[in-house]
Amino acid sequence: MKTWRLALSFAIVALSVAGLTVLNGILESGILSLSARSPLFSPIPQSISVHLAQKSQRDLGVSDVWRLVYQRLPDFPLENNYVLKETGKVDPNNTLVARLIRYHLFVKGRPANYRLDWKVTLADYLGVTPEYLEESVYPGGDVLRQNPMEGDRAVIQSLNRTQRDTLIQVLVDVFSGNAPSLPGASDKQSGSPLQVAPPPQPGDAKLLIP
Question: Does pTM top 0.70 for this prediction?
Fold first, then answer.
């Protein structure tokens, strides 16, 4: 019995020594040091980051955004005289800017706080990009009796370069948080004072007169 116990103790010691020897060899070879330098989690792919940014933009109510745009550009065409299929009544909230924003965000999935992306969207309306407008997916086409795509395209095409640049800058300002807020529930809950729109500058309204 004592001989068996001595043999078992010797085997355990031998295994421990062998294990330490193997571990030391691995450490000296640099295998573990390489894995230690490797990140535990791989970085988030750019496509996922873009998707998260777009989701945040979509959470911003389109109705709030287009109202802020018209607040800054009161002479910009509303184009809100289209009749709803369901009620047979004109929907005053279905505006050109609202449809433009929905097309940019939801149809094309483009970021909303970069001038270049808005330029590409307006280029779609101008017909100077490989992308083109499609009635089947154009905002408002599914709820309005008349698809507003052609009318919206005509308005955008009637703008000159200065007017288009002004529209783009206002859209970027609104989505970047550089535009005054509209009165709403969030303002009442937070108790923060309403921001006042900057005083109009000479020639602001005339920039977007067709």
Answer: no
